[in-house]
Structures are given as C-alpha cells and as structure tokens.
Amino acid sequence: MKFEDFEEKTISRKDIFKGHVINVKFDRVALPGNRGEAPRELVFHNGAVAVLAITANNKIVLVRQFRKALEKVIYEIPAGKLEIGENADPQAAMLRELEEETGLTSENVSKIAEFYTAPGFSNEIIHLYQAKELVRVPNPRPQDADEILVRYEVTLDEAKALIKSGDIADAKTILAIQYWELGV
C-alpha cells in the first residue's frame, strides 16, 4: 500500500491552546478512500532529549521529582524539552540537561534512538542518548527555577525493582533501562 492509502488530508484546523510547552489544535480530516471525515485533537511539542547516564561503577543516574500530571514522585533518567533553536543540535541540549539536573557531563556520548511518545495525538519526539565516562562539572548550570530534583545512582537490579514498584513509570526511562540491560 502507498502513503496515499493511509493519508488523512486536513480540511480545517482550529487553534485551541498556545502554551509554553505545547500547542493544541483541533483538525477535521478527510479519511482516505472516501471514507468520510473525522475529528483529530492534536498536541504539538518542540521535542525533548533524555540521557541514559552510566557511571564508572556501572550505575545509572536517575533524578527523582514530582510530576504534577501524575500527582506523584517518580524516578526518571535526566531529560528535558528542547528550547527554541535547539532542534538542530539535540545532543548539545541533552548535555545541557544532564549538567543542569545532575552536575555531570560527558564526552563519550552516543545516540540510542529517537521515538514518538504518543503518536496517536502528539508529535513530541524524544532524542535518547547514552553517556559514559561521566565527569563532575565544577560550577554546573543551575537547575530550572521550577524544578526540584534529587539525583540518585542505582544498579540495574535496583532500576528494575523501581519499575516493578511503579516508582519508574515513564516510557523513556523504561526504554533506556531495557537498552542498558541488553548491553547493546
């Protein structure tokens, strides 16, 4: 089958919300094959970066923080949104986030994957990296003013236990830990 057999053509678009992190639109689309029309609620996001940071003693660096949308505290790999203009160099954005959230940096960085968080309604893409040979930054950039983070270092078994308990509950962190476990 060709792209045209799947493509939904936009008939109309209405701006619903324009925020600092997301924009929400409402589209009416024509379904392929003359199958009528359908509504689509869409979330547009500038993208994000995340990092599987592995210490010299083979532990993963996590941050623990409150997530308002979940109304709970969870452990996550260091991550953050791409600021305006950072799309051309997500690796630099990842290193910025790593430094801000953990006080660490690395010159041994490789890209693991790019993935969409919820392609059914959002275009958010996360650029996931791995960083090894971590070094402490003498005077690191400060954490964002609206973030309260605590850094942790855990073994693979401890990370898996945090997944099992629900303390790690986000896809990017689970994906990174699975990658780490595979030893790819």
From TrEMBL:
<dbReference type="InterPro" id="IPR015797">
    <property type="entry name" value="NUDIX_hydrolase-like_dom_sf"/>
</dbReference>
<feature type="domain" description="Nudix hydrolase">
    <location>
        <begin position="43"/>
        <end position="176"/>
    </location>
</feature>
<dbReference type="GO" id="GO:0006753">
    <property type="term" value="P:nucleoside phosphate metabolic process"/>
</dbReference>
<keyword id="KW-0378">Hydrolase</keyword>
<dbReference type="GO" id="GO:0016787">
    <property type="term" value="F:hydrolase activity"/>
</dbReference>
<dbReference type="InterPro" id="IPR000086">
    <property type="entry name" value="NUDIX_hydrolase_dom"/>
</dbReference>
<dbReference type="InterPro" id="IPR020476">
    <property type="entry name" value="Nudix_hydrolase"/>
</dbReference>
<dbReference type="GO" id="GO:0019693">
    <property type="term" value="P:ribose phosphate metabolic process"/>
</dbReference>
<protein>
    <submittedName>
        <fullName>ADP-ribose pyrophosphatase</fullName>
    </submittedName>
</protein>
<dbReference type="GO" id="GO:0005829">
    <property type="term" value="C:cytosol"/>
</dbReference>
<dbReference type="Pfam" id="PF00293">
    <property type="entry name" value="NUDIX"/>
</dbReference>
